[in-house]
Design a protein that fits this description.
Number of strands: 4
Strand content: 25-35%
Number of domains: 1
Shape: elongated
Structural class: alpha+beta
CATH topology: Alpha-Beta Plaits
Radius of gyration: 13 Å
Number of helices: 3
CATH class: Alpha Beta
Distance between the termini: 15 Å
Length: about 100
């Protein structure tokens, strides 16, 4: 099964304000975007398992014109709070790179 790293030319994570984290997955072409952008493998359960995200806050926004999907979730504590370990969330994407993807039928 292909991984995120296999089908994306660029993956990044960043803060999206003090209460949200967002990930941008730029697929390496239209074909892989259509096959994997809405894959169940990238669903709320993954973000709960990897980041402790509340599944009800996980939102995905496919952007076909850019062959990318933006996936965001609500932070469990505000940016810059007492338990903050990565204030800008710039390193969070690394956990996604080896996630295996199921193709959308």
């Amino acid at each position: 099964m292909p991984t995120v790293n296999d089908v994306c030319q660029h993956v990044r994570s960043k803060n999206a304000g003090p209460f949200w984290v967002t990930f941008d997955l730029f697929f390496d072409g239209d074909e892989n975007f259509k096959k994997y952008a809405t894959s169940p493998s990238l669903g709320p359960d993954l973000f709960n398992r990897l980041f402790g995200a509340d599944t009800s806050t996980v939102k995905a926004f496919p952007v076909p014109s850019l062959n990318m999907v933006k996936i965001s979730y609500g932070r469990s504590s505000p940016q810059g709070g007492e338990v903050e370990r990565d204030m800008h969330c710039g390193q969070q994407f690394v956990r996604l790179l080896d996630v295996e993807l199921d193709a959308v039928s």
